[in-house]
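In response to reviewer comment 3 from the previous cycle, which asked for concrete evidence that the modeling workflow produces usable outputs, we include below a single protein chain processed end to end. The sequence was submitted unchanged, and the resulting structure tokens are shown without manual editing.
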Amino acid sequence: MTYSLTSFIASHEEETARKKIIEVMGFEVVTPKSDELIVKLYIPDEDVITVKDKKGNKRQILVPEVDLLDEPYKACTALVIAIGENAYKGEEYEETGAWCKVGDFVTIPRTVGWQCRYRGHFVHFIKADKIFNVIEDPTYIKRVPWEEFFHE
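The workflow returned the following structure tokens.
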């Protein structure tokens, strides 16, 4: 099987992408010793509610995960923040090489891998061969409510 996954991160941009991730997250992400990727799920603006507290400060609240549970089979977008040492190794990757790079946005199935809170950030660990594709911009992908599939 041949995959046509292409990174949007040019070779000369890889270090800049890593530095930006460290800047935003506040620490350097560890490299898994496995064939897994660590990705940070992209949260679209419509899943964030902005409110003002009693002092007038703006606060952002993520729509509770329980409200999104009716969408367990829809793909989501995520930022690749680490690639395991053994990812994309072996004969099956000789022709294609790595499918993505740190700093790429990818689409992934929601039901693959495992999620945890890592140093205050929700991250998702998935096998490297489970990504659907690399995308240029995460805002291009929108979750579609099930009922909308039947209405045009």
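The beta strands are 36-41, 48-52, 58-62, 75-83, 105-109, 114-118, 121-127, 133-135. We consider this sufficient to address the reviewer's concern, and the full set will be provided in the supplementary archive.
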